[in-house]
Amino acid sequence: MTIQELAERLEQAGLPLAYGAFRSRQDPPFLCYQYEYDTIFYADNEPYWYAGHYQVELYTAAKDPDAEARVEAALSGLTWEKEEEYRSDQQVYEIRYEIEV
Rounded to two decimals, what is the model's pTM? Predict the structure, then answer.
C-alpha cells in the first residue's frame, strides 16, 4: 500500500485530513497521519520484504465513538494498534492508530 492509498482510505472517514499537521488551526474532530519508519526483513543478506509504519491521529474535543468507528472502518483490513490520551494543554483527546503497510 502506498501513502496515497492510505490517504484515500482515511478520506473515507469524512473528517478533515492532513499529512503531518494542518497549516492553520483546525477545530476537532480531524485526522493527521505521518510516516514513522520502515521495517526491512532480510533473507540471504538481501532485502526480502519492507513494511512502512504510519501513525494516524484522531483529535476530538470530547470522547467520540462515532468518529473512532469511522476511522476504524477506513482502516478495515489493516492491522492496527490503538492508544488514547487526553492532551490537557490543547483540551483534546488524541486517539493514535499505529499501522503497518
Answer: 0.88
